[in-house]
Amino acid sequence: MPRLSALDRHLVSFTLNGVPVSGEAEPRLLLSDFLRHVLGSTGTHVGCEHGSCGACTVEIDGRPSRACLTLAVQVEGADIRTVEGLAPAPDRLSLLQECFREHFALQCGFCTAGILVSLNALLRDRPEATEEEIRVTLSGHLCRCTGYVSIMAAALAAQTRLGTDSK
Amino acid sequence: MKPARFDYVAAASREEALETLHQEGAAARVLAGGQSLLPMLNMRLARPGVLVDIMGVAEWRQIKEESGSLRIGAAVRQWQIEALPQLAHFQPLLAAALPWVGHPQTRSRGTVCGSIAHADPSAELPLVLVALGGAVHLRSRRSSRAVPAGEFFTGMMATARNDDELIEAVSLPKVPPGTGYAFREVARRHGDFAIIACAAVVSNEGARLAVGGVADRPVVRALPQPQAKELDEALDVFAWDMEARDDLHATARYRRELVRRLGRATLEEAARCRA
């Protein structure tokens, strides 16, 4: 691969929530900023920009990852999923999102996009995840409103309902 | 919180990566998973002229069992090691420490070698490497060498790596039968950098304890067996020798007390786990 110059913008293409997308990025542009400012997908939030808060968490090739610790040029050809990909239709919430609403698992909503992405992946890949595993997953996120109790309640409720639905 | 400008090279081969490092020297930084480097770039604590992305080099993606050790290539992500079947059986210390490395959301991208290259004094993977007496395999365009873990870390985020070298793999020795291992850590929040982390290796031949987060690098020391009455004094000497300092997270005195208490608890747990 040729050297990408710092001063130029370069074409970056990947799949976003199942749809091919592309845009131009300087090498230093973070994936979080590429999603928001180049593609206009503002569902992914930007908090601390050094990997601590988890607000910018997106799935990269099936694994929840920090968009602020990833360069746009690093995800060329990757499969990216964001909070915008969770709802089955514009007027319908996913089961996990529904449980968040029912259990008041968000207040200001800033951290919610990242938490939903992480929990969605956990409940999909490990339907039998223990409460401890859910807590470990949540440890990668900061929420300053809820105190996490309602988020745990929503996650456990979603896990139960997903288990019932698949039987 | 945005990086300064840099060029970007996605190396397609080992030769291409090493050639770029050779030409650029200190201006280049190796980019693997980016989970330590990107925060440094975002905070502009590092301002490299060029990043050499090595994740596309196939031979660095290998995980190999060889001559009694586990060899982990430069492009192997932390989750891939965590997911190895039977890891707790053949690398019990690594298996115990990995869940403490960052969060699931950073282990998805971060590499084992990258954490070792970053050499944060409180990071878990450098501590495990030192506790086990592993080795760091360095390569430049001209040469390659293996550096014992104890000689690799030279200070706070400083290592024996030269500017034109990169870590192409690390190797961790396998468990000798009859050895017990334990890992413990104190941090403000699970996944945060450790205030102190302890890794213990105990067999009938001897006991050793590695401590991270106290000195400017992970430190390992041979100590009396947990049941020996000399242990308390040896731990106290160890605690003072590391010259702990006060910082925003904990006082030096608190850290010394944790070396005594957590150190003992970790050694005792390792002794109980002797296979």
| Helix and strand pattern of chain A | EEHEEEHHHH
Structural class of chain B: alpha+beta
Radius of gyration of chain A: 16 Å
Widest sheet of chain A: strand order?
Answer: 2-1-5-3-4
What is the CATH third-level topology name of the largest domain in chain B?
Uridine Diphospho-n-acetylenolpyruvylglucosamine Reductase, domain 3
Write the CATH architecture name of the largest domain in chain B.
Answer: 2-Layer Sandwich
**Oligomeric state of shown chains:** heterodimer
Strand portion of chain A, in percent? 5-15%
Gap between N and C termini of chain B: 49 Å
- Any idea what the radius of gyration of chain B is? 19 Å
From the N-terminal CA to the C-terminal CA of chain A, the straight-line distance is 48 Å
Give your account of this protein's structure.
The complex is a heterodimer of chains A (167) and B (275). Chain A is of the alpha+beta class and 167 residues long. Chain A folds into two domains: 76 residues, Beta-grasp domain (Ubiquitin-like (UB roll), Roll); 71 residues, DNA polymerase, domain 1, CATH 1.10.150. Helices cover 33% and strands 15% of the residues of chain A. Chain A has five helices and five strands; from the N terminus they run E-E-H-E-E-E-H-H-H-H. A five-stranded mixed beta sheet of chain A has the order 2-1-5-3-4, sandwiched between helices. In chain A, strand 1 and strand 2 form a beta hairpin. Chain A is elongated and about 50 Å long. The mean pLDDT of chain A is 96. Chain B is of the alpha+beta class and 275 residues long. In chain B, the strands form four sheets. Chain B has a five-stranded antiparallel beta sheet with strand order 4-5-10-6-7. Chain B has a four-stranded antiparallel beta sheet with strand order 11-12-13-14, sandwiched between helices. In chain B, strands 1-3-2 form a three-stranded parallel beta sheet, covered by helices on one side. The longest helix of chain B has 21 residues. The model of chain B has no long low-confidence stretch (mean pLDDT 96). Chain B is built from eleven helices and 14 strands. In chain B, helix 10 packs across helix 11. Chain B folds into three domains: 47 residues, Uridine Diphospho-n-acetylenolpyruvylglucosamine Reductase, domain 2 (2-Layer Sandwich); 115 residues, Uridine Diphospho-n-acetylenolpyruvylglucosamine Reductase, domain 3, CATH 3.30.465; 93 residues, Enolase-like, domain 1. Chains A and B meet through strand 4 of A and strand 1, helix 2, strand 3 and helix 6 of B.
